[in-house]
Amino acid sequence: MGTTSRLALVAGLMLIPGAVRADDLPALGGVEGQPLAANAERLAQALQLLGTPLSETTAKALTAAAAARDAAKIQELLDPLALVQVSVNPEARVKVARGPAPAVLQQSGYVPFVVKVVNESTVKSPLAVSSPQAGPVFGGPGRNNRDPLADPRAIQRFLDVGMHTAQPMTRNLSGLKVEYALLLAYSAESGKREATLAFDVGQGTQDLGFRGEMPILFDVKPGMPVTLSITDYDGKPTAGRFTFQDAAGHVYPPQAKRLAPDFFFQKQVYRADGGTVLLPPGELTVEYGRGPEYRLRTQKLTVPAKGDTRLAVKLERWINPADYGFYSGDHHIHAAGCAHYTSPTEGVRPEDMHCTSRARR
Fold this sequence. Notes:
five-stranded antiparallel beta sheet
């Protein structure tokens, strides 16, 4: 089934008249197997990098189907994971149908969704997505030009959406009759939230009658605050590095487009003693440590759906350089020209660098 802990198959009808059933995305014939196989392999790699790998069963079956260049089997394996199907007709008009994957989000983290693209045109433009419920969740030059609070609709925005086009995915459509893309969605709120997703492949490509839009009711799972108690080998409070994963290998908080103080380009997060992290309910494996002179240890953590959770860890050294007269002078601060400081809330604030610097030393 794919991303097992979050993308469990559910039945339901499409939310717009005339659409196919949400559990019925038919496999298309006449699709070249070799390029679709390459697309499927890159999709699996991207999901792995984003911390939401395919299940072992699906991954093995997809590898075999790709090796055999079996386009029908590839669609059979990936279609159940599709949130929507985007169709581009010969006139380059776009329409959207609901796919079988449930619309389940995790509060305070980006979640990738598979998008099936059926392209009957010669268009090789980027696939774009937008939503009236979406708005910026971080700072940037665009927000300096106009106060976002001047827009009364700003208070209705809880979502952020975008197509994941970083490697190994591509920015543009390939022109293949069938290919798969990745949508990233973020919610700042939890609970049932409806949002309208609109897709296009350029100016004027949306189909008539709002068929290029799809209202979707998202089930946003709440992030549960977990307080971290971190002590060094000598019992003193300190900072540490933590990697949280579930049984399917999903990384939390989700890596894609993490906001400060967390980094999107690495699985671990850094916290000082008394810090908190939002995690989904359930059983997770925690790997923790600090700098290279510390051992990496693992333990299980059960996050309840209600109530407060506290995780206490004691870090363990395998060597203490100070015992031999060596003291670190690396503050790990990029003092000039670092891209992290271009937009503070997209990158790292001074207090975040202080925490991560201590954890890495």
